[in-house]
Amino acid sequence: MKGDRSALARAITLAENDPERASGLLEKLGAPGRAFVVGVTGPPGTGKSTLVDRLIDSYRELGLRVGVVAVDPSSPLTGGALLGDRIRMTRHTGDRGVYIRSMASRGWTGGLSRATSQAIRLMDAAGFDVILLETVGIGQSDIEVVGVSHSVLVVMMPGLGDDVQVSKAGLMEVGDVYVVNKADLDGADAMVVSMLSLFRGSRRSPPVLKVSALSGEGIENLRKAIDEARTKFSSGDRGLRLRSVRGMIVETARGAAMARFAAVSESKAEALAQQVVDGRMSVEEAARRLGR
Ligand SMILES: Nc1nc2c(ncn2[C@@H]2O[C@H](COP(=O)(O)OP(=O)(O)O)[C@@H](O)[C@H]2O)c(=O)[nH]1
Ligand SMILES: [Mg+2]
User: Fold this and answer.
1) Per DSSP, which regions of the chain are E strands?
2) What is the DSSP track for 259-290?
């Protein structure tokens, strides 16, 4: 809470390795809600990490302290999971106002959702003003992690096979701002048009913005779009706070339930299988017992 970076690093490692013990620590931190949390999701390769890197600069120019949680193990921001979380993108090393942390991809099912939520609360307690959460938007659980955010960016790029990807992956529901990145490539306008047509006829009409994370084009515009929510957040908007805290509760409970299930299933399943094979129990009954 004094902003000690090595204490923060150790606390996040604890959340990754032993979320149960981390819970004890988190309970002493008080209510979350100082930091504004921006979720960044979308299919792999659309430029999320590059965009996050740009947003770091943009918020630093405003004098804000920025924390980053990247659950994409291949993130160039963090040097990838193989190199470990000590390796930072050199551009930001030495800037005490930036803290970048990758979360190991192992344990997706065993509670990365909980560890991610915990990491964000730890960064919040450590005094960061803005927290950027990058997650790969492919599976349902990957996407749900952004539920802890006050604003969610869905990042797309030209030539993705447009609308199909977005609607299939469940990305239609989660975004507050839709970003068509790689505007320097052909097909960006067509992508914007097809994104807009996806929302025609739905109740929502979130902004669809064209940017190039590579050149920096459109980044200020994007930050201003995000700032609408940040301004609301800063003025104490209860709806935004509820939304993020609700996400934290859900992700924490989901992680705990998965961990509990993983712990029982191994030992119990074998015994139940014996009973099913011997014709003493149905698969359905065995599954009910296993889930209990
Ligand atoms: N042409 C172009 N390439 C980009 C842009 N943004 C990112 N890229 C490239 O797209 C690739 C994937 O970027 P990355 O940020 O790792 O994507 P992520 O998987 O969504 O995090 C990298 O080679 C980037 O250099 C952009 O605006 N224009
Ligand atoms: Mg990435």
Assistant:
1) 36-41, 66-70, 98-102, 130-134, 151-156, 177-180, 208-210
2) HHHHHHHHHHHHHHHHHHHTTSS-HHHHHHHH
Pocket of ligand 1 (CB under 6 A): 44-50, 72, 75-76, 181-182, 184-185, 212-214
Residues contacting 62, CB < 8 A, separation 6+: none
Please tell me the residue having the least CA distance from ligand 1 atom 12: 45
**The domain containing residue 136 runs over which residues?**
5-258
* Digit-coded pLDDT (tens) for 179-204: 999 999 999 999 999 888 888 878 88
Tally of structural domains, the chain: 1
66: CATH: 3.40.50.300
Question: How far is 113 from 98, CA to CA, in rounded Å?
Answer: 23
| Pure H helices in 95-139 | 113-125
pLDDT in tens, 130-140: 999 998 777 66
Q: Is residue 287 part of a domain?
A: no
Give the C-alpha separation, 227 to 238, whole Å: 17
- Rounded-to-integer distance, Cα 159 and Cα 185, Å: 9
Nearest ligand, CA 43: 1
**Single-letter residue type at 188:** A
Residue 237: φ, ψ to 5°:
-50, 120
Which ligand minimizes its atom distance to the CA of 72?
2
